[in-house]
Design goal:
This protein has 173 residues and is mainly α. It has 8 helices and no strands.
Length: 173
């Protein structure tokens, strides 16, 4: 019980004392693989790691989407193309991701070649996340300002190239 209220409050220090009192001696915080994984779960992830996690979620959605789409009979249209007729840089990404999850690289590249870069980045970041969780790789270091600028410039160039591909694919250029 908390000293000021009548509700039960469990503090981390109380849990550690309780675990030691049970004779375990080692808490999750004290080390070992469980301690490393617990610390890793609490560590804030870098932006590339967060994008890798988003990529994993998108991969799961790419496997589930065709089943759900067939069951309910609805597709997922591109909002920009639906409203204006102009394709966006991500047009075809759903088709590309579902084709990639089905193992059809040709159809995935034809719909949106960017999906291949995103899939490769997701695989690399997943491996890095696992290596960091197991203690095989150090935590991320902050990027210098010049590296961040180059990364944003590269991303802008990739988005522009994807948009040019989509505009060409749909006959706009």
């Amino acid at each position: 019980m908390d000293c000021c209220t009548s509700t039960l409050v469990i503090h981390c220090a109380s849990l550690q004392k309780w675990a030691r009192a049970l004779g375990r001696g080692r808490t999750v915080e004290s080390g070992g693989t469980a301690g490393r994984l617990a610390r890793e779960a609490r560590r804030p992830h870098s932006l590339p790691e967060q994008l890798g996690l988003v990529g994993l979620a998108a991969a799961g959605a790419a496997f589930a989407y065709p089943v759900v789409s067939r069951a309910i009979g609805l597709g997922l249209p591109c909002p920009l193309r639906t409203l204006t007729g102009v394709p966006c840089p991500l047009c075809g990404m759903t088709t590309a991701a579902t084709s990639l999850s089905a193992g059809d690289l040709g159809a995935a590249a034809a719909a949106n070649p960017s999906v291949l870069l995103l899939a490769a980045g997701t695989l690399v970041m997943t491996g890095l996340l696992v290596a960091r969780a197991l203690g095989w790789a150090p935590p991320p270091a902050p990027w210098p300002e010049t590296a961040r600028r180059r990364a944003w410039s590269a991303l802008a160039a990739l988005v522009a190239a994807s948009w040019a591909f989509q505009l060409h694919r749909f006959g706009w250029i």
